[in-house]
Design goal:
Number of helices: 6
Bound molecules: adenosine-5'-diphosphate
Radius of gyration: 15 Å
Strand order of the largest sheet: 3-2-1-4-5
Largest sheet: 5 strands, parallel
Shape: globular
Helix content: 40-55%
Structural class: alpha/beta
Length: 161
Amino acid sequence: MKNISAVYPGSFDPPTNGHIDIIKRAAKIFSEVVVAVTHNCNKHHMFSLEERVDMMSRSVSEIKIVKVSSFSGLLVDYLDKTESFCIVRGLRALSDFEYEFQMALMNRKLKRDVETIFLVPDQEYTFLSSSTVREIASLGGDFKNFVPAPVYEKIIKIKGK
Ligand code: ADP
């Protein structure tokens, strides 16, 4: 494999075990994986950008070639900054496909040599999303097995306040 760095963008609100599964798979393929937490003022997030970056950083601290960062604006501009042309995205089910396909083609229209690499998580994570974790947590359900330990601790701490 060539010396290629990839960017894995997402809201990660909060990071889940599904995201970590994708990051571990990407880390086996690429020489460097930059997890890029998106800052989007128009989107209402449960966690601030700093909290999402912090939770993600703690969750991937043992995977050496992974860096956690954040960006606002166009992903293709961020790719230029990081000198990368590869975007990693996770595909859980057919329902993800249409949106992801549209984004991949749009990013390629914006920057011709961009490639989007889709990775499929372990079957046990195909039902998992940040929004279901937020919902279970807010309804008092047990979400411990769905998120990395630092994320679980953070949510429990907030709920305890
Ligand atoms: P976004 O708002 O950019 O969709 P998310 O944090 O929801 O941000 O997701 C980031 C990426 O991770 C997307 O490609 C999404 O399809 C993927 N993803 C989300 N949950 C899972 C999961 N359980 N398994 C695999 N990929 C996932």
